[in-house]
């Protein structure tokens, strides 16, 4: 997990300055969840959603939404950002775009999440309410740890992966880059799921999986072959 080795550091809410605003890039359902978590964390001076598709008719009252950050003259010295969309390829693309604009990524850690001080958390990570990131877990860049998901001790979640609500990555297990672990799905202790793989809701991974595709069932089996998405 190159992103984690390069940029991760022990989790520490105090490590991110609370005097900067936060650009939440993405105004869909997940973006609103992230906005609420950021608000409740109290770690940012102001919040702004950036989404050209959501700006018109925006009704979420917790924070405003604009089509582009330039609409309000948001500058890197005053704002951090988080890419807040579910699709891993799009999340990676937005992450890289805002990095290139000079903005620094921020983590949004819900105050009702439990995060071990020994866990290694990459940049631009969202950890939602009820989630657990346990002892010596490693979480890469741009990862989503959704509501009530469990990232157990000594496990590894690679860059831009997504653990859906109620999913469990058991101790020493690995979820690969850009992969998705569905709601209430699990990966058994010490087992590995490779990159670009979708594990369906409620599935149980009992053996290593390396071939890209959609998997489901108990134990999880290949339902449909896919190809890794191209980066754009």
From TrEMBL:
UniProt binding sites for substrate: 86
Family that this chain belongs to: Belongs to the transferase hexapeptide repeat family.
A Gene Ontology molecular function term of the record: transferase activity
Compositional bias per record (Low complexity), positions renumbered to this chain: 9-21
Protein name: Acetyltransferase EpsM
PglD N-terminal domain: residues covered: 22-97
Gene3D superfamilies: 3.40.50.20, Hexapeptide repeat proteins (2.160.10.10)
UniProt KW keywords: Transferase
Organism: Hoeflea halophila
Binding, acetyl-CoA: 162
Family annotation (Pfam families): PglD_N
Site (Increases basicity of active site His): 154
Domain of life of the organism encoding this protein: Bacteria
Catalytic site positions: 153 (proton acceptor)
InterPro entries: AcTrfase_PglD-like, PglD_N, Trans_hexapeptide_repeat, Trimer_LpxA-like_sf
Disordered: region residues: 1-21
